[in-house]
């Protein structure tokens, strides 16, 4: 019988080295109602403003980034956790190397 859970003891190790001028991503899990993706950004890389139909959280694990959240901007450092409702325009700019966990949550009504 397989385990009814997923355990990753060293999330950061999944990315390995982050090459210059790149963004690396690894899907940690993808289920019907939720999805988690680990991102690694080289310095100066960005995800331009976009939106998704699902609610999501951004958790900064390493580095410093500017997050655009609707019309607001904020500096995010390790430990920053942001919840975003569905359809909120958002973007990420990495000042240095950044590791970020994105979790998307589909509501029961979707």
What does this protein structure show overall?
The protein is mainly β and 110 residues long. The chain has a single domain (23-105), classed as Jelly Rolls (Sandwich), CATH 2.60.120. It has no helices and nine strands. It has strands spanning 23-30, 34-41, 46-50, 55-62, 65-69, 72-76, 81-84, 90-94, 98-105. The strands form two sheets. It has a five-stranded antiparallel β-sheet with strand order 1-2-9-4-7, with no helix packed on it. Strands 3-8-5-6 form a four-stranded antiparallel β-sheet, with no helix packed on it. 17% of the residues are buried. The model has no long low-confidence stretch (mean pLDDT 94).
**On the 0-100 scale, what is the average pLDDT?**
94
CATH domain topology = Jelly Rolls
Spell out the CATH superfamily: Jelly Rolls
Number of strands: 9
Distance from N terminus to C terminus (CA atoms, Å) equals: 31 Å
**Helix/strand order:** EEEEEEEEE
Judged by helices, strands and strand pairing, the structural class is: mainly beta
- CATH architecture title: Sandwich
Q: Mind telling me the C-alpha Rg?
A: 14 Å
Helical element count?
Answer: 0
Physical arrangement of strands within the biggest beta sheet = 1-2-9-4-7
The percent range for helix content is under 10%
Which descriptor suits the 3D outline?
A: globular
Q: Mind describing the biggest β-sheet?
A: 5 strands, antiparallel
CATH class, named Mainly Beta
Strand content: over 45%
Low-pLDDT segments, ≥5 res: none
Number of domains: 1
């Amino acid at each position: 019988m397989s385990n009814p859970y997923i355990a990753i003891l060293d999330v950061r190790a999944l990315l390995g080295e982050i090459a210059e001028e790149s963004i690396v991503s690894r899907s940690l899990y993808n289920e019907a109602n939720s999805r988690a993706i680990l991102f690694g950004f080289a310095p100066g890389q960005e995800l331009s403003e976009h939106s998704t139909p699902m609610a999501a959280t951004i958790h900064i694990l390493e580095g410093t980034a500017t997050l655009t959240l609707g019309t607001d901007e904020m500096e995010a450092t390790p430990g920053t956790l942001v919840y975003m409702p569905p359809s909120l325009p958002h973007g990420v700019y990495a000042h240095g190397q950044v590791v970020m966990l994105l979790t998307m949550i589909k509501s029961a009504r979707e």
